[in-house]
Specification:
Shape: elongated
CATH architecture of the largest domain: Alpha Horseshoe
Number of strands: 17
CATH superfamily of the largest domain: Tetratricopeptide repeat domain
Structural class: alpha/beta
Number of domains: 6
Strand order of the largest sheet: 4-3-2-1-7
């Protein structure tokens, strides 16, 4: 039988004779260096670890890595590596060495993928752990593989592509009589070595050195499945080889894994999603374990720490870990391995430092799967420099962003290829795209974002990009206030609600020591309508107070900004927690500045709110005076809404003053002016005017003796308020209309139902003022049912929350 010969450049190596020659002349080489060379050429293109090379050259001796470096240096010198552009051996720091020159095998047996009579089961690796949470995907992909010959599983690093591919191939094994063959392409550094790597996995030894032709010949009459794993860094070569093999061998199927599509003829794609996460954190451990992300974390944590048992009290921390790690299996496994050292609560608390924390991968795993950072390093290093720049700049976005935002923040003057870069990053599984709505939205997974943020800071670009980010959202929200008074809440939130996370991130930067406070103030003013529409009172108050403290009196816009901020502060204090008595001074400041600036809109807003503030404080005469000032200012106005609001405010004032006849007169006029106006036309001073007018009409009707009519209007008003979908308006419907009228009529069942509805609504939409009212209403119901002590306790609890007891 002929001996195997390796030919490369002017060299021929005959391992059986332990002989290396150049142009027919023997090359003097030490035995250790020769062992290293033989080990490298046997697996061309593959990175062989230093430990494996040491074991090959010094099988019975313990030596340091320095000895290996010395002999590799001697080998390179003997081969003339590096002279005249010749490259034979590549050093991959931290990983090992690879033989990278074109290589031919001579005097070898004729090529055959699976010799007749040989075991044709293939080379699929056996799974060491259970595949978690992928049953439906495995079934779907196995079924699809039976219909399609060429499939690629695509997804970000660590998502579980290899695990799923191996499991699918194992399920499909019976359909391939000549075996299922697994080819690990990650160690390759040269795309030209892809055919030889596939050939080596199949046992194909070309007689003439043409691996591609040999593969085609050996597989032509075979029924086999090739699993080509980790194709992204040699993607062009894999695509070409796959197309050629599928044409040459009709019985061959290909299942590939890659971080981006191969874009080859006949390719079917499956983008692998993360493991499933619950939307709600309020659940038991048993309930949480119905979700695959939690299942995987729990299994791996138990494997790492025998005594670990997830208790109900652990669930919030475990869900936080699973969410912060985006349900990515590799990240969850790395986190679970740290449970023994930190416990789940401390682990969840330190996830901002995840790249230093999550480093305990399996020793036998590929280097890029041993740490979270390495998994992302692999993807980042495969990007073009323009793509790297765009990715790290996109990291400034918190949550979802629109394409126009991505362009505005990442593009330098003269840049014209940002859209292509973002599209490429989506293709390479580094940016997620959701095109299901009217406009596509993009986001970086949390782990990818933190990694890219580190790159952004390392590049010295963070402040520049953070400024662009904040300035972009100032521009986005410039028309927001005007549109909040001309669009329905649903329409408005559909446009602006998606930006909340980015607004928060931009404000955090702008108000930081490294930020720009004037940008922060401008952004705060611009996004006030967002907090209003979402009823985020406490957040609004905190941001507004921060902005007020950062105002620069030298700026020409300061007076107007102070007016707008004071109005927002008054609104937030009125409906927030414990500081309602401070709302009046904030509205007084607003009115003063509105007078100075001659701003009619804010003057009306301040008068309305000062009237309501006086009601809340029991100053009915002062409230009536503000209502009359509002009416005087709007008298003769061509704005129907202003005239309606004046009557609505006067009706409220006379109602509380005890003059129900005058109140009824003004409420009827207000309803007449409302007429058939569209709902988006009647949202002023943060309330739906039609809804709020109807509940005051019901109160007036009841006090005038029309109880049945009032109760019918209450039921209609509840349906109407719920349909509008504006949290604050619906609270007022229940708190000022339904609950008190039910109590006045003695219908305790209805009062209980309305009070419970108000309590539930104010816990889902954190409106503390109305939450306190709900508790007090329910306390009154309890007392009226006969349990005086329990009712008083409930009332006292509500008043204590209000800071009034």
């Amino acid at each position: 039988m002929d001996e195997e010969v390796f030919a490369f450049g002017s060299f021929r190596l005959v391992p059986g004779q332990r002989m290396l020659s150049e142009d027919g002349e023997p090359v003097r080489l030490g035995s250790r260096a020769l062992d290293i060379l033989i080990a490298l050429v046997e697996r061309p293109g593959e990175t062989i670890s230093k430990g494996e090379l040491i074991a090959r050259a010094w099988p019975d001796t313990v030596v340091e890595e320095a000895a290996l470096r010395v002999h590799v240096a001697a080998l390179r010198k003997a081969l003339g590596d590096g002279r005249a552009g010749k490259r034979y051996i590549a050093n991959h720091p931290g990983r090992g060495y690879a033989f990278v020159a074109p290589l031919k095998r001579e005097n070898a047996p004729s090529a055959t993928a699976v010799p007749d009579g040989a075991d044709a089961s293939g080379s699929l690796p056996a799974p060491l752990t259970r595949v978690v949470g992928r049953d439906e995907i495995l079934l779907a992909l196995t079924t699809q593989l039976a219909r399609r010959r060429f499939m690629t599983i695509v997804g970000p690093g660590g998502i579980g592509k290899t695990t799923v591919a191996v499991a699918v191939a194992d399920r499909a094994r019976a359909s391939y009589e000549d075996g299922v063959w697994f080819v690990e392409l990650a160690p390759l550094s040269d795309p030209d070595l892809v055919p030889s790597a596939v050939g080596a996995a199949l046992g194909v030894r070309p007689s003439g050195g043409d691996h591609t032709r040999a593969l085609a010949a050996s597989l032509r009459d075979k029924t086999a499945l090739l699993v080509l794993d980790s194709c992204e860094h040699v993607i062009g070569a894999v695509a070409s080889l796959a197309e050629m093999l599928l044409k040459a061998a009709p019985g061959v199927g290909i299942l590939a894994t890659s971080r981006e599509p191969l874009r080859a003829e006949g390719e079917a794609l499956h983008r692998l999603a993360a493991l499933e996460l619950p939307a709600d954190a309020n659940m038991s451990a048993d309930e949480a374990l119905h979700y695959s992300a939690v299942q995987l974390f729990n299994e791996r944590a138990t494997a790492a720490m025998d005594e670990f048992v997830m208790a109900d009290s652990d669930v919030p921390a475990v869900l936080e870990i699973c969410r912060r790690l985006d349900g990515i299996p590799l990240a969850l496994e790395l986190a679970a391995a740290r449970v023994g050292a930190f416990g789940v609560r401390d682990l969840a608390a330190h996830l901002d430092d995840r790249f230093r924390l999550l480093t305990a991968g399996r020793r036998t795993a590929l280097p890029r799967h041993q740490t979270l950072s390495a998994a992302l390093d692999w993807s980042y290093q495969l990007l073009w420099e323009k793509e790297r720049k765009v990715l790290r700049r996109l990291a400034v976005f918190a949550g979802e962003f629109l394409l126009e935002a991505g362009i505005a923040v990442t593009a330098d003057p003269g840049s014209s290829d940002i859209v292509d870069c973002i599209a490429n990053l989506v293709g390479k599984s580094l940016v997620a795209a959701d095109a299901r709505g009217e406009v596509a939205q993009y986001r970086l997974l949390d782990t990818t974002r933190l990694y890219a943020l580190e790159k952004l800071r390392s590049a010295g670009e963070f402040r520049l990009i953070a400024r662009r980010h904040a300035e972009h959202y100032i521009a986005v929200f410039a028309p927001a206030e005007a549109e909040s008074e001309s669009q329905s809440q649903a329409q408005w939130l559909g446009i602006y609600g998606r930006h909340l996370a980015n607004v928060r991130a931009a404000l955090d930067w702008a108000m930081s020591s490294d930020g720009d406070r004037q940008i922060g103030v401008a952004l705060t003013v611009a996004v006030i309508p967002l907090w209003v529409q979402l009823s985020l009172f406490d957040e609004c108050r905190e941001r507004v107070e921060q902005a007020l403290s950062g105002l620069n009196d030298d700026q020409p816009t300061t007076a107007r900004w102070r007016m707008q901020l004071s109005a927002a502060l008054g609104w937030a204090l009125t409906y927030g927690v414990g500081r309602a008595r401070e709302a009046g001074p904030a509205w007084a400041t607003t009115l003063k500045l509105a007078d100075e600036l001659d701003d009619r809109s804010y003057r009306l807003r301040a008068l309305w709110s000062l009237c309501i503030d006086q009601f809340n404080n029991g100053n009915l005469r002062a409230a009536l005076q503000f209502a009359r000032r509002f009416a005087d200012l709007t008298a003769g106005s061509s704005d129907t809404i202003e005239l309606m609001m004046a009557d609505r405010l006067l009706a409220t004032a006379y109602h509380y003053f005890g003059d129900q006849g005058e109140a009824g007169h003004h409420i009827d006029r207000a309803l007449g002016l409302l007429g058939n106006l569209a709902q988006q036309q009647i949202v002023r001073v943060r309330f739906d005017m039609r809804v709020s007018t109807h509940y005051f009409q019901a109160r007036i009707l009841w006090l005038q003796g029309f109880a049945e009519q009032a109760l019918r209007l209450v039921e209609h008003n509840i349906e109407e308020g719920n349909a509008v979908g504006q949290a604050l308006s619906f609270c007022s419907v229940l708190g000022q209309g339904a609950c008190p009228i039910a109590l006045w009529t003695g219908n305790l069942d209805a009062a209980q139902r309305y009070g419970a509805l108000l309590l539930d609504h104010t816990e889902r939409h954190p409106i503390r003022l109305w939450n306190i009212w709900a508790r007090c209403f329910l306390g009154l119901v309890i007392a009226k049912r006969g349990d005086i002590n329990a009712g008083l306790r409930a009332l006292r609890g509500g008043l204590e929350l209000a800071g009034e007891a």
